[in-house]
């Protein structure tokens, strides 16, 4: 009986190995940026749930055998620089907005790679900055393979921008974009060679999608709603699936132990702010600064700053600033969350921030503005506080409520329950597998 059972298990293993769905995830970077982190986590979640997933990237940073670097990596880096040069010229030789815009004008073909040819489903993520051009995305769509495209921001539904803020042109047609400073207004000798960028890229994206089907996956219900309003995606399938998180890594820990390991004060309530680049104006650091000026007992409080350029804002905070800098080590990042009393992300535009999810998985309540997908993550006065948009006074009220008034243990439990119910690897992988399998029917 035992031999029969072992034989059955062996053939079941063989069947799963050779019959498993093969998915190729495509992203510019393996680890750098929120989209890369989310794509990497999804790959692991899919593998753990029986899918043969691989990730194709330009920038490979680990020795993970499931992550494949594009063989023309050097050419892709040059493509990125060439694309930036074109954007810089279009912006009138100005650096402002240079990295807020992407044109999809440069990249490399992936359809001839063995990883592409053996895949059952092609799953695009953040493919900007020289990874894939619009022409090459069209070639992927023409390959006949089902294509899923996870939207980590609104770029797939607009012409050139990743954040629309108050602009609604994408609902009809992107043209005369606020970010697109035409050289004609600067009386440049180059102006006659350059047409308005947004209108030109919008037309190219229309051609790319015309007569072709893509399943667009927004990471939040908010972004899915925005994508459905886009004239560019009219007739395309748009669904919403959140990013996953590994709760075996991001989990609660002893606060004092974490602080000792990081050399942080043991006797203060610590506020955590995190961003890949702290000085990014869209992450709202100035609103946190204003809120900190309105808090009582400043000597009992401190602000931990996780991210690049942290040292540039230290002198502008009314509370003790504790710059941690940019951290790549995941275990150290977890320790930073575990050391915090509250996590604050006053962003002006967000999809579904990984940082809020990570903080809550560590049992840390969160505060953010009522914008984008943030209210989907933070349940007001249950897992944190949702402040009125761009309102530093309400942000300060939220900080006072979390730090001084709320039941901290109840907040911690609610955070963990919310993450387990909505963002666990198993839950998210199941929903993506259902999306993949829908192509078969």
Q: How many beta strands in the DSSP annotation?
A: 13
Model regions low in confidence, pLDDT < 50 over at least 5 residues? 10-18, 182-194
Give the overall silhouette: globular
Strand content: 5-15%
Please outline the major beta sheet.
7 strands, parallel
Structural category is alpha/beta
- Quaternary state of this entry equals single chain
Order of helices and strands: HEHEEHHEHEHEHEHEHEEHEHEHEHHH
- Please give the count of helices: 15
Average pLDDT: 89
Radius of gyration, whole Å = 23 Å
Strand order in space, largest sheet: 3-2-1-4-5-6-7
Structural topology:
Blueprint: H1 2-19, E1 22-26, H2 34-48, E2 52-57, E3 67-69, H3 73-90, H4 114-117, E4 121-124, H5 134-141, E5 147-151, H6 197-209, E6 215-218, H7 221-229, E7 237-240, H8 255-262, E8 269-277, H9 285-293, E9 301-308, E10 320-325, H10 330-339, E11 342-345, H11 354-361, E12 366-369, H12 374-377, E13 384-387, H13 392-405, H14 408-422, H15 425-437
């Amino acid at each position: 009986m035992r031999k029969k059972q072992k034989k059955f298990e062996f053939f079941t293993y063989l069947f799963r190995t050779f019959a498993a769905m093969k998915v190729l995830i495509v992203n510019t970077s393996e680890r750098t940026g929120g989209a890369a982190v989310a794509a990497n986590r999804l790959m692991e979640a899919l593998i753990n749930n029986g899918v043969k997933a691989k990730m194709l990237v330009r920038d490979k940073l680990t020795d993970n055998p499931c992550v494949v670097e594009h063989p023309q990596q050097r050419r892709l880096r040059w493509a990125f620089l060439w694309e930036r040069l074109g954007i810089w010229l279009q912006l009138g030789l100005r650096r402002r907005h240079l990295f807020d815009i992407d044109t999809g004008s440069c990249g490399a073909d992936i359809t001839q790679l063995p990883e592409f040819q053996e895949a059952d489903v092609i799953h695009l993520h953040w493919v900007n900055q020289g990874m894939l051009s619009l022409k090459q995305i069209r070639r992927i769509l023409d390959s006949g393979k089902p294509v899923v495209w996870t939207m980590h921001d609104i770029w797939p539904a607009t012409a050139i921008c990743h954040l629309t803020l108050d602009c609604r042109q994408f609902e009809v047609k992107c043209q005369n974009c606020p970010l697109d400073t035409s050289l004609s207004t600067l009386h440049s000798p180059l102006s006659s060679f350059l047409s308005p960028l947004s209108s030109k890229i919008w037309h190219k994206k229309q051609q790319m999608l015309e007569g072709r089907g893509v399943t667009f996956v927004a990471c939040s219900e908010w972004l899915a709603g925005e994508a459905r309003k886009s004239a560019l995606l009219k007739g395309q399938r748009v669904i919403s699936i959140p990013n996953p998180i590994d709760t075996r890594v991001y989990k609660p820990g002893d606060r004092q132990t974490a602080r000792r390991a990081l050399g942080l004060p043991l006797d203060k309530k610590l506020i955590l702010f995190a961003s890949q680049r702290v000085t990014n104006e869209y992450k709202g650091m100035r609103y946190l600064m204003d809120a900190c000026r309105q808090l009582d007992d400043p000597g009992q409080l401190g602000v931990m700053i996780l991210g690049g350029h942290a040292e540039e804002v230290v002198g502008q905070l009314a509370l003790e600033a504790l710059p941690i800098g940019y951290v790549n080590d995941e275990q150290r990042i977890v320790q930073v969350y575990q050391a915090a009393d509250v996590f604050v992300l006053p962003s002006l535009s967000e999809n579904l921030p990984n940082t809020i999810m990570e903080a809550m998985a560590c049992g840390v309540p969160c505060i953010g503005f009522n914008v984008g997908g943030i209210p989907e993550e933070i349940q007001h006065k249950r897992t944190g506080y949702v402040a009125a948009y761009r309102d530093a006074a309400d942000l300060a009220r939220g900080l006072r409520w979390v730090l001084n008034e709320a039941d901290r243990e109840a907040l911690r439990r609610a955070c963990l329950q919310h993450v387990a119910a909505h963002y666990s690897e198993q839950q998210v992988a199941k929903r993506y597998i259902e999306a993949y399998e829908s192509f078969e029917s």
